[in-house]
Write a sequence for this structure.
């Protein structure tokens, strides 16, 4: 198989580290550039192992830490070190790079991914927030610049595989599967009073803090509904969610004749990452196959919109349109961090999101500025709401 030059936005996170495992296994992947945040220990090890030309980190302090770590490892020929969003943009648009793995968490990956699309790169997209914020802008840029967006999220990757060779006119609906998270069988009161540790304890996937909380509230699945709309062109009422705790069936497609095509696989993101990098070809992977004899029971059930209001809210944001999904995404990021900092309850994430989505007057997603303005407004409003909640809680106590 012909070699491929890649860069990774978010190289020290779960998807980034798994991408490097895939690169090692395939043996024909050249890692040209790595974009990280603040985890300089992991980035230093990645530099030693993969020898990228460029790397990026959050700020000058991180850059100095990285240089110290590389010198302690006796690395003399250090890569060029870039800083912040400008650094991520340079990594995403490097002239030698053919495929950009967009795996940063949250809105930080939005502008670099857009610039990569404008540069005509293939995007292996694990950052769903990018399409949630600006799906119309992103897809138009991809069409205009010959860029290809291939999903890395296991659910959308599964849908992409199910749709290979199918006529979209013959598709009745898309079915996204959800594990249900740690509170699938918990009461509404249990969810309201959930601790940080309980919310982070996902039963199936080992993920970062933010996406784990989104999974606990089913916001992750709501964002995936919006992402699926932009990736595949289906309306919200044609995209269903079904709870499947075993996480063996990653998603399904129902055709107009009633046939259903499902994609199954072990719960390991290396499958989806490898598919996105090697598409349209397939290559053997290093993971064990599914042992069907060990799968004793596959269950499916409807999601509970009352216990998990964030899922219903995502459908509402998609229907309202324009900049509303960007507002929902920004509000949710601020609220999730407030919960992780133990400043609000888990159930208050949805309350904050509901308030902002309801109050927002959407504008067209016709420019980068429109998206960034909506994002900034939502973050400011969400912080104000959280501050008011804190004052109220203090007065009650």
């Amino acid at each position: 198989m012909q070699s491929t030059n890649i860069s990774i936005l978010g190289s020290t996170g779960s998807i980034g580290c798994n991408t490097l495992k895939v690169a090692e296994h395939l043996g024909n992947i050249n890692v040209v550039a790595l974009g990280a945040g603040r985890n300089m220990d992991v980035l230093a090890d990645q530099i030693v192992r993969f020898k990228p030309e460029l790397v990026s980190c959050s700020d000058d302090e991180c850059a100095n830490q990285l240089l110290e770590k590389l010198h302690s490892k006796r690395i003399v020929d250090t890569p060029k070190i870039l800083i912040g969003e400008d650094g991520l943009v340079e990594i995403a648009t490097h002239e030698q790079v053919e495929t950009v793995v967009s795996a940063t968490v949250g809105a930080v990956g939005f502008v670099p991914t857009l610039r990569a699309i404008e540069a005509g790169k293939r995007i292996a997209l694990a950052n769903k927030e990018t399409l949630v914020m600006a799906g119309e802008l992103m897809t138009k840029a991809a069409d205009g610049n010959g860029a290809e967006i291939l999903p890395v999220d296991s659910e959308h990757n599964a849908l992409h595989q199910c749709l290979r060779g199918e006529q979209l006119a013959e598709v009745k609906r898309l079915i996204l599967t959800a594990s249900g998270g740690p509170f699938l069988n918990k009461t509404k009161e249990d969810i309201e009073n959930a601790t940080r540790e309980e919310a982070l304890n996902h039963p199936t996937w080992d993920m970062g803090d933010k996406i784990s909380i989104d999974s606990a509230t089913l916001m992750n699945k709501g964002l995936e509904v919006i992402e699926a709309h932009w990736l595949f062109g289906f309306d919200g009422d044609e995209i269903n969610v079904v709870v499947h705790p075993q996480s063996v069936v990653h998603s399904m497609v129902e055709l107009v004749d009633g046939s259903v095509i499902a994609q199954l696989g072990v719960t390991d993101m290396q499958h989806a990452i490898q598919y996105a990098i090697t598409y349209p070809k397939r290559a053997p992977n290093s993971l064990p196959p599914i042992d069907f004899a060990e799968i004793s029971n596959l269950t499916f059930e409807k999601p509970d919109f009352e216990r998990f209001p964030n899922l219903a809210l995502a459908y509402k944001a998609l229907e309202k349109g324009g900049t509303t999904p960007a507002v929902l995404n920004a509000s949710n990021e601020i609220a999730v961090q407030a919960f992780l900092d133990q400043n609000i309850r888990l159930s208050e994430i949805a309350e904050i999101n509901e308030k902002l989505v309801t109050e927002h007057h959407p504008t067209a997603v016709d420019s980068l500025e429109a998206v960034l303005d909506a994002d900034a407004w939502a973050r400011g409003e969400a912080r104000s709401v959280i501050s008011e909640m804190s004052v109220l809680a203090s007065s009650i106590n």
Remarks:
- The first helix runs from residue 14 to 26.
